[in-house]
Each structure stands twice: as C-alpha cells, then as structure tokens.
Records
---
Amino acid sequence: MKGFLLKAHAKKASAKARERSAVSRAQLDGQSRQTTETKTSAFPTGKINQTERDRSVLTDSSFDPREPRKEETVSDDKPPEKMSFFSMPQPADADGTSAWLVGNKTAMAQVIDSPGYPSRTPKPPRCDMTVFRQTIDQQKWGIFATGLIKSGELLFAERPLLVAPRSVPKHFRALPCPQYDDGRVMPLVLETYERMLKLSLDRLPADRQKTFMELPNARTELAGYPILGTFFTNNFGIENLKDNTTYDGYAGVCEMGSRFRHSCRPNIMQRFNLASFSFQFYAARDVEANEELFYAFCGVEGSAASRKARLAPYGIACKCSSCLNATPESDLLRTNFQSEIERLTEQTTECWKTGNKIRPEVLGNMLKLEQDMIKEGLDGISEFTAFLMVIGLTLKSMGQSSVAETYLTRCKGVVGIIDGSASA
Ligand SMILES: [Zn+2]
C-alpha cells in the first residue's frame, strides 16, 4: 500500500512540474496569438494529459525545421526513418480499424510486443452505460450516464479513428526549404503533415473517414488544414506510446470518446491500452444517473482566468459552476491544492518513518482540504485519489480502522487505473 502511495506521490510531483511548464507555455502561446495573429508561435497538440511532456523546443523562437539540432536528432545521430502508414490491429477484428501514422519501428514494436496483442477491446460491465444526447437546454450534445456508475468502472472502450504524432514529427526538421524564411516554413510543415494525415485516413473504411471529418474543428488558426484542425481539436494524448521521432508521443481521435465535453470539474479519465489498441474511458468518481460525463481538456489547476486562456484554442468558454462562480478563494484553492497535498503527505510520511504521532491538526487540515476539493469539483482527478489513500493510511495509523477503510474503499476502483494495473 505504502509502496503505491510513494509511487503515486512521486508520479504526481513530476506530473506537477510538467503541468507547471505546460501552463506557462499555454499562457505564452495565448499571448502570442493575441499579438501576432498570422504567426503560429507553437505547434498545437491536443487535450492535455496528466503527464504532459515538456515541448518547450516547439515554442522556442529559434525553432527552424530546416536545421535538425544535434541534441534532438534520433539515436546514433541517424535521421528519422520514413513515416509509415498502418491499419490497426492486424489482423482486423469486429471492434473497428484505426489508421496509424507511425514515426519508426520502435513505436510499432511497443504495440506488437505488448502482452496479449492483438486483443479485442474490453467490454464494460453493463452495456449502454452511457448515451450521447442533447443537453436539457438542447443547446449542446454530450455524453450522459444512463444509471449509477461506480468510481473506476469502465464506461466504454473504443479503437481510435486516427493515431498520429501528437506534435510536429522530427522527420519534418529536414524539409528541404533553405530558400524559405521563417514565415513560409510553418505552412510547409503544416501542408506536409496534413498530407500525411490524409494518406493515413485514406486507409480507413469510408464510413470511418466520414465520421472523422464530421467531428468538430475549433482550430481557427489551422484554417485550410481541415484534417489537422480536426486532429488537434479532438485528440487524446497516448501516454504509454512514444518513440524518439516524436516530441510529444502519439495522440488519437475517437468517434465517441472525442465527444466528451470539457469541464474544469471532470468525472472521467482515460487510458490507452496497447494490446487492444484502444482508448478506455473510466468513471473517475461515483456518477449519478443522467449526470453528464466530462473530461478536462486542460489542466484543472490555476485561476479561472488562466483556464480560460488555455481553453481558448478549443473555442470553449467553459460554463462549469467552478468557472461561473469563481472567487479569489476558489482561484487560490486551485492554485495551491497540489502543493498543499504534497505538504500534508510529507508531514504524515515523515511521522510513519520516524514513528512519531500524527498531530490531530494535520488530519484536520487533510479532511478540510478533501471537503474543499469535493466542493470545487476536484474529486475526479488522479491527485485526489492519491490523496484519499494518504488520508486512509493516516487514519489507519491513528487507530481509526473503520473510517480508514471507507477512504481506502473509495479510492480502490481508481487506483488500478492510475498505476496501470487495472488496464485490460
Ligand atoms: Zn470551467
């Protein structure tokens, strides 16, 4: 138990550092969009992950696709291999086909060598756990729970329509365009990437190609590149699929999963399973019947104003209750909850190590933060699950076994999803 806790804690701390850099980059990106409308200062990616990788190289003003920089070249200083187009899985099955634009053989081997590949997509405990329908005010469409869903339950799994590098692939660094100035290099990169994605999509059955092109495209800065715009509006990062030809690993667009709407009060999480080549969407907390299911497209930390800036590329003006009713106090909670969890966790683990008694006020502060996070809609994020476990273990060490058990039971369903052991 404590092993997991420490692992989760370390994972969280590093994710936090990455999130911080993602926030500052997003802010910079937002600012540059306002001031220089025609220049794309950073290549877009897609919906944020809990574990964003640093992609500062792409926001670096010295970025020049013509000159591969030494530290960014692939291993053995060899240029990247040609990109390849695949249909997944092979052989095909009845769970749908994915088009995959692959950077090199490493990524392909990661999938093919994963235990159980090729397997069918996992099925949820009950069929039709969700429904895609209009919101009550009939203004939007969203995905709703059809009945009570327990924390950690699989909502559905699906093969993505398209999987491709999440950001500009390193292959494009060697584009032969020495006569172009910087203002003409980016369009060439975009045109090339658009063409690559088109060739990938061409491998899909016609109905799946049509489904992809009918998904929303909010990327106005990518006008003229319809596939790229749709890809970057709808993709989810695939954390466990990476190779050295990509800066941000891979991302996939789903027929149904990409229709989850954004909220800063998310109640689902997703994981990508290599063996079945599918995204799996889970309830991140208990969900009531008819409750809408939401994914956070951006990091949920920080003030309402900073979240607004991060959501601007999606054309989303978030109307969740946390955004509508934001106060200086709620902004402060969202800015500080990660460091506060870290501080309280350190205090208790220190006591476990030294054998000292945990002071009642430490537990009091934990329970207060737990309640504040629930009220603020932060109970559907992985940090909250790890925090529940810390509280449970703290109570246990203080001899309050039965209350401790309720905490440990509450986070049980999600723990396996966070650390990957529940992945089918
Ligand atoms: Zn919001």
---
Amino acid sequence: MNLIRTLIEGAGQSRNPLFRLGYRAIKALGALRRFLVSARIRSQVITRTIYKDQQFQAETASREDRYPELFAECQKRLAPLLNPRILCFGCSTGEEVFTLARYLPQAEITGVDINPWCLKQCTRTNRNDRLRFLHRNSAEFARADGFDAIFCMAVFQRTDPPDQETDTLGNRVHARPVRSRGGDAGSKAAAGRPVFPGRE
Ligand SMILES: C[S@@+](CC[C@H](N)C(=O)[O-])C[C@H]1O[C@@H](n2cnc3c(N)ncnc32)[C@H](O)[C@@H]1O
C-alpha cells in the first residue's frame, strides 16, 4: 500500500505531463469518493460553498474531553455560580458541549456552529434541556449575551478571524465576578474581558 502511495505521489512530481495528469485524476477521484461516502465531508464542502467568507475552517473533527485541563479549570472557576452560562463557539458535533455539561451539570450551555449538518447531529444526540444548539447566523444567537465563559477551540486555526469577530464574541462575556485564581488570563476573565490565548 505504501509503495502504491509513493508511486502516486512520485507521479505528481514527474516531468511527464501524462503522469501528472494521472496524479490529478487519482486525487480528484479520491476527493469525490470521500464526498460521496462521508456525510461529514459532504457537510464541510457544502458549508464552505454556502458560507465561504464566514467560515474560519471547514474541519469539524472533535472528541469527548478533548481539553481536560481547560475543562477542569473552568469547572473550578465557575463552581461559585449557580447556573453558569457558557458559549461553545464552533461546537461541531457537540462533544465539547456534552463534555462541559458533565463537568458543570448546573451550567446552561449554548453550542454554536456554522455547519448545519453538525448542528443536526448535536440536536439528535442531545437529551439535556440545559443545552441548546444554534446556527451562528440565527437571530437567537444574535440576541444571545451574558455568557460567563466562551470556548472557541480549534475554530480560528486556518483563517485569522477579523478583529471585529473576536470583539463581538468577547463582548458577550458577562462581567459577573468569578473568583480568580490569579494570573494574567484569570484576572482578565474576572474583569469580564475576553482572553484569546496567544493573541495578546
Ligand atoms: C475543528 S472543529 C472544533 C470543534 C470543537 N470546538 C473542538 O475543539 O473539538 C471547528 C468547528 O468550527 C466551526 N466553524 C468554522 N467557522 C465558523 C464560524 N464562522 N462560526 C461558527 N462556527 C464555525 C466548524 O464548522 C467546525 O465545526
């Protein structure tokens, strides 16, 4: 299998135009096969076609408990609140939201995504009425405000968001005093200001 792969990749670098054409045809067939076989891939392509200027990245991969340290820290910081309100921006198929709901069962969590297929998977899986899932362009999300924490994980990886996007997101953080454990991020979060790690 590896040999075949190496030969195909080699054809892509070949001086012979027929080999290069063959290489491109094989790649195109592979992409077509993935599009036809996988509903997830199809949704990524369709979302990119419809929302191309708004989509920060097409990739929708996610998994349960993907950021355990961050979730545990969030659990500690939000523990004093009766019903913390959390936004998961770019929630994909909901694993982040469902995980956070286990760390913070008292939280109200809003998952937002641009990919309608992902949101359908979230709604299908969800059995918890403290969780809701919204499209990023929905009127309900436009009105949503007063979050105690915003997760925006693996969303701004491929395309830098315009400042306006991060400002609008950040402004939805409510300035409820959350007990801070110190540190730069802690004090900014406590002051109700957005924290974008690595972008300070
Ligand atoms: C790689 S997944 C990350 C999922 C989850 N946050 C995690 O870290 O496991 C990125 C998600 O961001 C979504 N996304 C991309 N651009 C977006 C936008 N402008 N608004 C909302 N969601 C967006 C994609 O559809 C995708 O589901």
---
Amino acid sequence: MALIFHTNHINKRFVRRVFENTLINIDDYPYHFIKEWDIHIWPLSDTNTQFFEHIKTTSGQKINPDMPSGVTGLYRMDLYLHDSSNAFKERENSDRIMHEICHARLINTTHFVTGVHRNLHKRFTTTFWYWNRFKYTKFTLSIIDIRKYL
Ligand SMILES: [Zn+2]
C-alpha cells in the first residue's frame, strides 16, 4: 500500500494509524491489500466537482467540496480530506478513511456498496495512540462492522 500525500498540513502519522487500525481490526492483516493498493490523499480544495459530477461516489452522495469524500476503484483510492490536524477535522477525516477502506475490502463482491451503507450505524470501536506535534494522543476510532462479509 502506497499512501501518496498531496497535502500540506494533514498529520500523516494520524492518517497512517487510521489505515492500519481499520485494516487490522476488520480482519487479519490483509497483505494483498497492503501490496496492491495506491491511496492518494488530496486536500478538499482539490475536489473537482465538475469532474465528479457524473460519478457515483462510494461516499454515497454527490461530492461536496466542504466535506471529506472518497472514490474507490480496484487498487486505487482517492480521498479528499480536510488538510488540517485540528481534532474535529481529524475525526471527520478518520470517518471517511475508514468508510472507504470498508468499500475497498468489499470490492468485487455484491456487498461493495450496500455492505457499508446498510451498516453505517453498526459499529465497533478501537483506540490507538499517535504522535501529535509534541505528545502522544489517544484516539478512539469507530469502524463500520463489515466483518460478516469477509
Ligand atoms: Zn460509501
């Protein structure tokens, strides 16, 4: 898995930890996922609404340039996130990252879209620590429970 950052301010350590913790907690460490996927992280300001106008996003709605969104295809994910390390923005970012990973894990199955969207409120949580500027910070990550489909 290559995480390719096109951002300036986002906390890369935080984004990596969200990826790792989502993947590990959904099932055993998925090596094929790690090996094959390229993940591009873009700032919200790069959201090209005209380009995406006719694309049905895996976020389940039209792309809104004010809200984190994502597009997941085979082996490629584009995430448009708040380019910020503000705690509230990080929470919104984490939810979108987790959501798109769930789609990615179900790609090429009949559950690709519905397996995520029908279970938006069936969640479990995990906590992790990450380095935030000067100190370790604890974060509780809420994950959509798609485990029954794997
Ligand atoms: Zn979705």
